[in-house]
Amino acid sequence: MLAATVGLTACGDRNDRPTTGGFFNRQEIPLESFSPQQIFERGEFELEEGDPTDAAFYFGEIERLYPYSDWARRALIMQAFSYHQDKDYPNSRSSAQRFIDFYPDDDDAAYAQYLLALSYYDQIDEVGRDQGLTFQALQSLREVIERYPNSEYAKTSILKFDLAFDHLAGKEMEIGRYYLRRDHYAAAINRFRVVVEDFQTTTHTPEALHRLVEAYLSLGLDAEAQTAAAILGHNYQSTDWYEDSYNLLTGQGLRPRAIGNSWLAQIYRQTIRGRWL
Fold first, then answer.
1. Residue 67's domain is classified under what CATH number?
2. Does the residue 65 lie in any domain?
3. What does the alpha-carbon distance between residue 268 and residue 277 come to, in Å, rounded to a whole number?
4. What are the Cα distances from residue 111, in Å, to 94, 105, 115, 116, 157?
5. Which of 26, 140, 178, 238 could form a disulfide with 117 if both were Cys (CB 3.0 to 4.6 A apart)?
6. Residue 127 burial class via C-beta count within 10 angstroms: exposed 0-12, middle 13-18, buried 19 and up
7. pLDDT for 147-165, tens place per residue?
8. Is-contact 157 117, C-beta < 8 A?
9. Which of 54, 66, 63, 65 is nearest to 24 (CA)?
């Protein structure tokens, strides 16, 4: 036991750290026997050794044993990080939120908010899965961008926000294609319309417009199909999607042009005036 205590006290020297078993066995020596700095360094050691579960435990014990110390503040953000490393996202969110609540003006508050957002973002699965987490990730990332615009995490959050936003559009496209393949044209149109109106800055907009051309032509709604192609040509003329739409229309003796007063015609007039929605 004495040797373990000496090992803990000398933790500043990496060579004095045991490769197995850690500095002390928490079941043999009460943590109350050690200073918050010693427990904090044990948590860091566990992270270095690839054991974020134990790291989170030790950081949490500092908050319990020394709740009003500066070490407790530092340990709380490290606990949130450790939980995230362990893919324990609910506990990571809980620790990060406590840090934000207790230390809203601290320099690490931006990082805590970013960790909270990551706890949602890192769970976003393939497009075919439920996208509830994507909405929560977007909301949390927006918090980082708006509350901490000058922080180092704002730029990364903007990038991840755009990717998550694109992910949601991809979900709408997948459902729309599903309906289109089964000749459920009205349902497909509703999905592609969402992409054009609500996700127009994503990479999926050109395909959505082309799919609208396909769906409207299948329903015999030539004016809407021509208008969708006109928008596609105005904004994405160099894409393969426009070429495909153009060939579809000309194959039926039609051409891309805005006709009537449909929702697509209104969008077309906005694009001509230089106001894309």
1. 1.25.40
2. yes
3. 9
4. 14, 12, 6, 8, 11
5. 140
6. middle
7. 999 999 999 999 999 999 9
8. yes
9. 54
Among left, alpha and beta (phi > 0; psi -120 to 50; other), residue 274 is: left
Token pair for residue 38?
């010693």
Tokens in use for 186? 């009205």
Asked if the model's pLDDT at residue 101 lies above 80, the reply is yes
Q: Which position has the token pair 């992270």?
A: 47
**How far apart (Å, rounded) are the C-alpha atoms in residues 210 and 130?**
25
Asked if residue 45 belongs to a domain, the reply is yes
Range of the domain at 26: 1-88
Query: Model-level pTM?
Result: 0.73
**Structural domain count of the chain:** 1
Distance of alpha carbon 259 from alpha carbon 119, whole angstroms: 47
Average pLDDT over every residue of 172-199: 96
Q: Token pair for residue 117?
A: 């957002």
Residue whose structure tokens are 């020394």: 66
23 neighbors 17 (Cβ within 8 angstroms):
yes
Q: Which residue is listed with tokens 């990730």?
A: 137
Distance CA 194, CA 197 (A): 5
Whole-number Å distance between alpha carbons of 261 and 265: 5
Q: What six digits make up the tokens of 78?
A: 């490290």
Task: Assess if residue 177 is contained within a domain.
Answer: no
**What is the distance between the alpha carbons of residues 266 and 118, in angstroms, rounded to a whole number?**
38
* pLDDT at residue 14 greater than cutoff 60: no
Within-domain flag for 143: no
Residues 6 or more apart whose CB falls under 8 angstroms from that of 37 comprise 71
In the chain, the amino acid numbered 180 is L
| Tokens linked to 207 | 């395909």
pLDDT tens sequence across 189-206 = 999 999 999 998 899 999
Interacting residues of 240 by C-beta distance below 8 A, sequence separation 6+: none
Q: Tell me how crowded residue 79 is: count the other CB atoms within 10 A of its CB.
A: 28
- The CA distance from 32 to 130, in Å, is 45
